[in-house]
Specification:
single chain, alpha/beta, Rossmann fold, seven-stranded mixed beta sheet, three-stranded mixed beta sheet, 6 helices, 12 strands, 28% strand, globular
Length: 180
């Protein structure tokens, strides 16, 4: 299974990228780092710079139909940058239109709001996104992980780095059951 991990050039919370990535590798899947620009991305540990990672594919030069699923790591700045990039937003929206599974953690649902794909869905996130998600038509819940199967695809969401173990288990289970 080929899984896109979409990040902005900087601002992704490193642990929210590396733990789901490693879980995909351990499960025998092929994670692919997709970003809005070629080169490397700069990850963060909260507000401090962490490691850099090489971009493998660029939004606008790849498409959702090249992947079996999408993971959106969080970090405060990462989804804020992504939601301002029309190609990144269209890339995310395409996964929903094609019925492919999507997983988002922490602040990542901001990008889902911009893609207008949360209406009538139940999801969780970092608590500060609660009002944004409700205003976009979603039902927000305070749960470690939430799987929503409203619509043609399944959406897995989680609140924060402390939820990563449950998030990884849930997204791999859902992606596997989607037959990618």
């Amino acid at each position: 299974m080929r899984i896109a991990f979409l990040t902005a050039p900087e601002g992704v919370e490193q642990v929210e990228l590396t733990e789901p990535w490693q879980a995909a590798v351990d499960a025998g899947h092929e994670p692919v780092l997709v970003s809005t620009q070629p080169g490397k991305i700069q990850a963060f540990d909260h507000l401090d710079k962490a490691d850099t990672f090489p971009v493998q594919e660029v939004v606008g030069e790849t498409s959702a139909d090249s992947f079996d699923g999408l993971v959106l790591p969080g970090g405060v700045a990462n989804p804020d940058f992504l939601r301002m990039d029309e190609k990144a937003v269209a890339f995310v929206r395409d996964f929903f239109e094609q019925g492919r599974p999507v997983a988002a953690i922490c602040h990542a649902p901001w990008t889902l709001v911009e893609a207008d794909v949360v209406r009538d869905r139940v999801l969780t996130s970092w608590p500060s996104l609660r009002t944004d998600l409700r205003n976009a038509g979603a039902t927000w819940v305070d749960e470690q992980v939430k799987v929503c199967d409203h619509g043609p695809n399944k959406l897995v969401t989680s609140r924060k780095p402390d939820d990563l173990k449950a998030f990884c288990e849930a997204y791999l289970d859902v992606f596997g059951s989607e037959g990618g």
